[in-house]
Structure of Charged multivesicular body protein 7:
Amino acid sequence: MSTKNDIRVVNNGLKEFKFPPVWRDKSKIKVLFASFHPRHFNIEEYDAKLIFWMDLIRQYCTYLGKANFSLRELQLQFMRGEQIPACLDVVMAEMAQQKQIRLRTEYESDPLNTWRAWIVNSFVKRPLWHSWQKLKYSILARDVIAESFVEWIHLDVLRTICSEVEEKVLSKNRGKLLHLEAFKKLCNTYQMRIHEEFLDLCLLTLQARRQVALHYKIERQTSYVHLIKIPADESASLNISEADLAMHNLEMTQASLVQQLESLEDEIKVNDDKARHYVKENKRQLAKTYLRKRRLLEKNYERRSIALHNIETLLSNVDDAQNNGVVLDAYKIGAKALQTVLSNSGLKYDNVDEVLADVRDTLDQHREIQDVMSSSTAEVAASHDEEELEIELSSLMGGNDTAKPLNLYNNNNKTEIVIEDDQLIAMLDDLEVEDGTLSQISQKTLESL
């Protein structure tokens, strides 16, 4: 939304450009349009006027979406009525001194402004050029009008536009090979404000930054950008190979066939409708004519469909081959990494087999030791349990004999106990037997005998 102080001027393409509020003040604008006085007369006024025009030029370039301009262009665009700014030549000279702008010819020869090019320009080209200019103007009159058409590049605006292109367009279309017109459509799709005249300079800058690769085409002795390759990543090759060109041609043919098929479908439908229309009007000959035309179109449609199918098959096969190549490269890298790890760790078949054999022997020895220890412990425990049972049994029988019970497991280590007959009879007499028990039965048996 514009305020009351904003002025929207329709002036040679600046239909919606917002000039600063001072543009309304005739007295101030008269001072701004006048030529510069020497700076020591009024330093503050000189600097303020210089900053005003520098900012206005920057806003103008940003609004149009281009960084290239000439002195004559600025004079015409900033004309107020019939008054032309008379101070722009000083402003541009100051901007060039502050490295805000560069000559287009110098920029195209060295976009990155390398040290090598700077040395060549400073000590070779520029001195020769100045010498030639002095010699030229000493003979001929200085052509001020021709100099006003020399183009300059606003470096800050250039960097801003190129960064925006990289962020909005390049980052979302990695790995593509685009025609120049397709690239322009992408810029429009992403709502990029970029002037058509500046697009070549922008692409040249991006190529110098190794963000795109350009393929030029020459027609009528004029070279222009034909194809633009956006690398898939930073490590991808920037060269446009024959395979890239072949893929691009296939894709262009595919798109052309799709458009032709769409057009044929529309024509088939039109002829079919006309044939039906003439049938209703009982005009059989005209109806046959359109039916024949429809059949010819259908045959043409079928041929082009087959061609489209073949091209799509080729594109699919190429894509599969590229993917298979990527997988194979991954296999190679993985195998090499595994070999390196095995080599560094000393893992070999013989070494592993020896180690495993040692492990098996050690485990067998450990198992034997455990078996021996467990069996000895079990015998000792069984012997101790047997002694405790004998003692408990003796106490239940009421015996007072303190003799130790027999050790059934190790009799060789025990002294033999001898029991006399008198002792045995006494022990039998001490046993308590109920009536009708074994003693009476034995007596009866004896009597019967």
About this structure: Residues 397 and 431 are 9 Å apart (CA to CA). Residues 1-12, 400-414 have pLDDT under 50 and may be disordered. Residues 348-395 form one domain.
